[in-house]
Write a structure and sequence with these properties.
Layout (H helix, E strand, L loop, with lengths): L1 H28 L4 H36 L6 H9 L3 H20 L2 H29 L4 H33 L5
Helix pairs in contact: 1-2, 1-4, 2-3, 2-6, 3-5, 4-5, 5-6
Length: 180
């Protein structure tokens, strides 16, 4: 039920964000692109909904594989159930995430980029707490081992996020559209 709720919230948020961005694009490029924007909105809705389930499976598979290396014992299905709870922070914070995403698009300011990045990282750390619980209990690991296993995806996510943020900022700087 948690993942279904997350999928619905993600799809609605993606639709809202894409519609808001679409309105800005129509202001810039005119009504000629409305059909493209409608298709983009539908794709955003569908991909966010389906992507939620895929994300759940991938996160669980990664945590399962890492916990095998740490000596974990227990079923994938139990870990899958426990990992579902890690989407609660994303459900709760969806309005803030949507707002920050729209602000990044509208303002293209360094402050907006940093705000979204810091908020996303804090959200990931909140999810990390759930992952530690899930791995510890579903895979019968000590707290320390569960924390280490769960930290690996967080560290990879943080590294990729900072790399992506840097690339986006550099791209906007080269275009001369980054506002400081």
């Amino acid at each position: 039920m948690v993942v279904i709720a997350f999928a619905i919230v993600s799809a609605v948020s993606a639709n809202f964000v894409s519609q808001t961005i679409a309105e800005e694009l129509v202001k810039i490029y005119g009504k000629e692109i409305e059909t493209v924007i409608a298709v983009m909105g539908a794709l955003a809705f569908i991909s966010a909904f389906l992507g939620s389930f895929l994300n759940w499976l991938i996160i669980t598979a990664i945590l399962y594989a890492l916990s095998v290396l740490a000596g974990g014992k227990g079923s994938f299905s139990v870990l899958l159930k426990f990992t579902a709870f890690s989407f609660i922070p994303s459900i709760i914070c969806s309005p803030v995430t949507s707002y920050l995403t729209i602000e990044v698009f509208k303002s293209r300011s360094l402050d907006a980029f940093l705000s979204l990045s810091i908020f996303s990282l804090a959200l990931m750390l909140w999810q990390y707490v759930y992952w530690v619980f899930a791995v510890k209990n579903a895979r019968n690991l000590s707290f320390g081992r569960a924390a280490a296993v769960s930290a690996i995806p967080v560290l990879v996510y943080a590294a990729l996020s900072f790399y992506s943020l840097n690339m986006q900022i550099e791209g906007l700087k080269s275009l001369g559209t980054l506002r400081t």
